[in-house]
Amino acid sequence: MRLSSRVTGLLNIKYPIIQAGMAGSTTPELVATVSNAGGLGTIGAGYFSPHRLEQEITYVQELTDLPYAVNLFVPSEKLYIPEKVEHMNAWLRPYRRAFNIEEPVVNMTEKQQFEDAIEIIIDKGVPIVSFTFGIPEQDIIERLKARHITLIGTATTIEEAIANEHAGMDVVIAQGSEAGGHRGAFSENTSQLTPLIGTMSLVPQMVDHVNISVIAAGGIMDGRGLVASMALGAEGIQMGTAFLTSDESGASELYKDAISQSEETDTVVTNVFTGKPARGIDNEFIHKMKEYDDEIPDYPIQNQLTSAIRKAAANVGNAQWTHLWSGQSPRLAQHISAWTLVENIIKEANELLND
């Protein structure tokens, strides 16, 4: 088994390692370091304004002339229901009072923000774009493909992977249930629940049902994870939590320490912070929200309602009232440079393959 694959050729990278687009935690330094080390760095642009996205791309282009990606959230068609928002605002009032925060004005500009991002990506010559939370409309896919931009989709089930292939994605991320952060799911099972299939089950089934390259994601932290993923038929890996605790990550020390001090049993999948299911470290906010007697407003509404609370909590070192996204392998997290992490993974993988 070789570490080069169809995907390393397609993305024009040396090693089959992708740094996940962790919205809110990537920095141009992290993205460029991963790309310069031979992997694929990704700008987590899910929450960026057009101005911020343009700045980040420019900075990454100054730091590397190697391929990098931009990750975008595909807009949802969720409805704004005033009664739901009022009810949630009443529930969140004590948290806001504790930090002296005003009630936010919810804006539903997700679609416009996404379309602006596509324009910037085309203008700035971004080589690779990855998508989470669904598949973009066909005209957007065609516009990007006309510029020879490589497209990466995200799937949590085989059906989602097939939909990504049919839509024209070049690569699909198989996001196992172990993955930290938001679930990339855009379908529900018969019980209206978000699919939670483990990486080891998801990858070989996906490989058998699509012809495009499959990247394994979820709980992978080292060379053992890379070799195991490729043995299952994946052509590479995507890692989030492993890069979250790296020196170049934008995560706060509070956040990095929380990951390092947690165990594999400490994470839960919850929608209380953003309105979308995401895996993170269990805390008081999640527990308290279990008492909430109504449906949580959908993403992006709930995300905007809790955003200032989470930021304020993180600023004062309160890990109990902020989101701490993490995958299920926190014991394997390391506080090292992203460059060293990539090097170590490749060294370990090669040693395993040569045994």
Order of helices and strands: HEHEHEHHEHEHEEHEHEHHEEHHH
Q: What is the highest CATH level, the class?
A: Alpha Beta
Radius of gyration: 19 Å
What would CATH call the architecture? Alpha-Beta Barrel
Provide the number of structural domains.
1
Which shape, going by the Cα principal axes? globular
pLDDT averaged over residues: 96
Fold-level CATH name: TIM Barrel
Largest sheet: 8 strands, parallel
β-strand amount: 5-15%
Q: What is the CATH homology-level superfamily?
A: Aldolase class I
Helix content: 40-55%
- Tally the helices: what do you get? 14
Cofactor: FMN
Catalytic activity: 3 propionate 3-nitronate + 3 O2 + H2O = 3 3-oxopropanoate + 2 nitrate + nitrite + H2O2 + 3 H(+)
GO biological process, one term: response to toxic substance
GO molecular function: nitronate monooxygenase activity; nucleotide binding
